[in-house]
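User: Okay, second chain of the day. Same drill as before: sequence in, structure tokens out.
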Amino acid sequence: MTSFQNLIMRVLITAGPTYEPIDPVRFIGNHSTGKMGYALAEAFAARGANVTLVSGPTQLRIHHPLIEVVAVQTADEMYAAAAKIAPQADVWVFAAAVADYKPRSMAPNKIKKDGDTLTLELVKNIDIAATLGKQKRPEQFSVGFALETNDEEAHARAKLQRKNFDLIVLNSLRDAGAGFGHDTNKVTLLTAGGQMSIFELKPKTEVAHDIVQTVLASLSALSAPHA
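Assistant: Same drill. Structure tokens below.
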């Protein structure tokens, strides 16, 4: 099995959801479990990569000498942790389901039920992948995820270009057994060069190895001497 020796020294992975606090007991979040990101951390480490896993709240635990876990809660915290690691990382994998919006301010005390409606003012979170993508050096390799419900390929390709990804992992909530909460996933890998690889439904641990192998093959092609 080919390792990442002489190719990859360090991998940055974001995983899981972010929780954006409304008050001390409530938050805006999503159904991400972090399973895909954690499986990717294990798969990269199995190939000899040093992995920093920036993880939102999850019930998952990971113990591997080559994996460092940085626990965060909010999108701002995830960005700060990722931005600190990204300049030294050879590969970036943005597998986290980051909340697009957060409350403009957090209430200092629990909001009491008063009236039939509650209005929250939301502001856009920083786009971690897009912001770091503007700083990506040519020798760095960036992987993104696109979970779509319609016009999947078109949305994924637009996201690939917009965020300066080298590879994007597309999956659709219309596929049974794919997406949040499942131990399986069905993905299509799209590269910046226009290649497409379609995989059938399989355990996320196997999907992770497919993604790692694709990254490894891409890096090998980039590092190969040209005639």
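The first strand starts at residue 10 and ends at 15.

User: Thanks, on to the next one.
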